[in-house]
Amino acid sequence: MSNGCGHLMTVNRVTPGSRGCEECLKAGSWWVHLRLCRSCGHVGCCDDSPNRHATAHFHATHHPVIEGYDPPEGWGWCYVDEVFLDLPDQTPQLGPIPRFV
């Protein structure tokens, strides 16, 4: 994993905003994996999911770094630099994550 990212200073300790993809839960949709915004705590679905809410969140907010959140995957991704990252910590889950797939 690369640490050649200029956005590591934007990584915060965050509280996840929900126990699943925030937008999918509201719409009754499903996801494959979850991604956690390490700027604000938004929980969105991955790009293998039909709605790609984590990437949509990046485009709307320009928050650069996400964490592979569910299942806990131990990596980060910077959308701007397009590199995987070693994160300084992993965010604990709020509780069991509902499964849709």
Automatic annotation (TrEMBL):
GO molecular function terms attached to this record: zinc ion binding
Pfam families, sorted: zf-UBP
Leader sequence residues: none
SUPFAM superfamilies xref list: RING/U-box
Domain UBP-type, first and last residues per copy: 3-101
Domain of life: Bacteria
Name of the molecule in the record: UBP-type domain-containing protein
UniProt source species: Brevundimonas lenta
